[in-house]
Amino acid sequence: MPESSSQLVRIDPFRLRMKRCGQMVTDATIFASEAVNLEPDAVRQLCDAASLPPAKKVLATADIHVGFGIPIGAVLGLDNAIMPPAVGYDINCGMRLLRTPFSRGDIDTDKIAVDIARDIPLGEGRENLQLNKTGI
């Protein structure tokens, strides 16, 4: 199991590779630039996830952080298995990836970020509204 980020090899400006070692059954890839501060415990959890026998592909998004056994932000490709901790206990927490017909210059990402921060509660329990039955 990697004890530090020195076990990771940068393969391009936005990806790191953790080569199969120890009990890992597959490599793991982390999508993160050099500006992303990776939590060592989250990297260890990713190594643990890559050590699970049904694991075929193990990835981590740039927001990887310590979870409940498997890091939040991890994506596991499993062979004939579903693993609830890999889905997450905060299922539907808001992470999505979709393909659009838009090009990079078509969208004002700064405006969208401001709109999201204004309209959507961000973080665990942060600024969530209390509703009574008539408000639901």
UniProtKB/TrEMBL annotation:
Coiled-coil annotated residue ranges, if any: none
InterPro entries: RtcB, RtcB-like_sf
Entry keyword Metal-binding: yes
Keywords in alphabetical order: GTP-binding, Ligase, Manganese, Metal-binding, Nucleotide-binding
A molecular function GO annotation: metal ion binding
Annotated transmembrane regions: none
Gene Ontology annotations of biological process type: RNA processing
Protein name listed in UniProt: 3'-phosphate/5'-hydroxy nucleic acid ligase
Species name: marine sediment metagenome
Lineage: unclassified sequences, metagenomes, ecological metagenomes
